[in-house]
Design goal:
Blueprint: H1 5-25, H2 36-64, H3 74-96, H4 101-110, H5 112-129, H6 133-139, H7 141-147, H8 150-164, H9 170-200
Length: 204
């Protein structure tokens, strides 16, 4: 893998946030529209989920193209996904709800898409915390089991995305189809691995 791959990916992952920042401060003709807070919340959530899907795409791409070096990009994508989703949550918490804990509690209880989205984000917290090589060595096999939480988190994220869209459902549908394809590939790949391991195991 070229040395510039990670720095280039880092810059690319920063671009949506830069674009949103420029729109927020009104640089040039860029604006956030009549409801800037809602625009920020939606955009940050959308980019966070897109990056989460890209994170899930890394393993299939590495296997299909026989490029295991691609796996080195997975952590960076995952952390950027978590960053955007955390900003998505904090923007709703601070700029939309103004840290009114009673209003926040009512929204979480009365709006299922918020409950589901919060559950998805909470699943990603331990993944972000244990994303370092030190945690990988410390947890061993448990690290892989822990990081499989990305799959239910992605499913809940897709449900959250679908439920909160009021009119244009094209992007949530596309994301759901991509996620379903990635999960189907994962199941098939694990099945092939299990079968291959059984064939290699000598019978007694």
């Amino acid at each position: 893998m070229p040395r510039y791959a990670k720095p280039a990916l880092f810059v690319l992952c920063c671009l949506p946030l830069l674009w949103l920042t420029l729109r927020a401060i009104g640089v040039g003709p860029l604006q956030l529209g009549p409801n800037p807070v809602a625009t920020l919340i939606h955009a940050l959530g959308s980019w966070g989920f897109r990056l989460l899907l890209l994170t899930l795409c890394v393993s299939p791409a590495a296997v299909i193209w026989r490029k295991p070096a691609l796996l080195k990009l997975r952590r960076l994508l995952g952390l950027f996904s978590f960053t955007y989703l955390t900003l998505h949550f904090l923007t709703w918490l601070i700029l939309d709800q103004w840290l009114s804990w009673s209003a926040i509690a009512r929204d979480i209880i009365k709006r299922p898409y918020i409950t589901v989205g919060l559950a998805a984000l909470l699943m990603l917290v331990p993944l972000a915390v244990t994303s370092t090589d030190r945690w990988l060595r410390r947890l061993g096999r448990r690290w892989h089991r822990l990081h499989s939480l990305i799959y239910p988190a992605a499913i809940l994220g897709a449900i959250h995305f679908w439920w909160q869209v009021k009119a244009d459902w094209r992007e949530p549908l596309l994301c759901a189809l991509i996620l379903a394809s990635l999960l189907a590939w994962r199941v098939a790949y694990r099945h092939r691995q299990t079968r291959a391991n059984r064939q290699r195991t000598p019978s007694h």
